[in-house]
Design goal:
The structure is a single chain. The protein is mainly α. It is 83% helix and 0% strand. The chain has helices at 2-67, 75-92, 102-119, 126-150, 155-213, 227-246. The longest helix has 66 residues, at 2-67.
């Protein structure tokens, strides 16, 4: 009996340990993914800020050129152009950004082409060029940079959604294990009650009736060939010995 009860508890402990191990592994994996997403998001935010700052430098320089009647932008324009290119190049080193950055690259190419064409001499007055062509390409690039972080198509947003789904997957083994543990406990209770508690109660009741009311000792428990069956046989032997001594 002791071995069967011990085996039941060992099986239950094994199931719980197994589920705990799976949950710990999934939580560790989730933590790694979360830290990776946070790190990438922080870097992308920094890079987007650099792009916007570089774009504003170019815009400010071009505005000064227009309102000062200069023919070329000042040094700040070239610094902004260089800083923008460096930020884009750094962002491209992150594999998840390559596809999504194409919109920013295309918008910047169009932006630079619009400026270079005008500076090369397109015979369009600066103010007319600024209103008709420049603002359109400027806002297109500005929106592309903002979409770089806020658009649902952003790989970071997609990975965050996958992370949320994985969180539910991590909880699932624990829930399944809990259900299995409950089933094992119920089965274990049924086993203990059917094969041990009920026979013991029958033996106790039958022995009590024999001692008090002299009702023959005959418990209604099936033979299980274990300690309870041995206990029943030992009680029957003692009763027979007492009967023989009286004779």
């Amino acid at each position: 009996m002791r071995q069967k009860i011990s085996l039941g508890f060992i099986c239950l402990a094994f199931v719980l340990l197994f589920a705990g191990g799976i949950s710990m592994y999934e939580l560790h994996r989730l933590r790694h993914q979360a830290l990776s997403i946070i790190e990438e998001n922080s870097l992308n935010t920094s890079l987007a800020d650099k792009m916007l700052t570089a774009l504003q430098k170019q815009n400010s320089s071009l505005l000064r050129m227009i309102f000062s009647d200069a023919t070329t932008p000042d040094a700040e324009y070239h610094l902004g152009k260089k800083a923008f290119a460096e930020a884009v190049e750094e962002a491209l080193e992150m594999p998840h950004n390559r596809t999504f950055l194409q919109t920013v690259i295309e918008a910047n190419t169009n932006f630079q082409y619009t400026i270079d064409s005008h500076l090369a001499g397109d015979d369009i007055p600066d103010i007319d060029w600024f209103v008709s062509s420049y603002l359109q390409s400027y806002y297109r690039l500005d929106n592309a940079i903002k979409d770089y972080l806020t658009s649902p198509a952003n790989p970071i947003a997609a990975r965050a959604q996958i992370l949320e789904q994985n969180a539910y997957k991590t909880i699932t083994p624990s829930i399944v294990t809990l259900l299995i543990a409950i089933i094992i406990v119920l089965m274990f209770f049924f086993f203990i009650n059917s094969y041990y508690m009920r026979p013991l109660l029958d033996i106790h009741k039958s022995l009590k009736n024999y001692l008090i009311h002299k009702i023959p000792f005959a418990p209604k428990c099936d033979s299980s060939e274990d300690e309870i069956d041995e206990l029943k046989e030992m009680i029957e032997e003692v009763i027979e010995q007492k009967k023989n001594e009286r004779k």
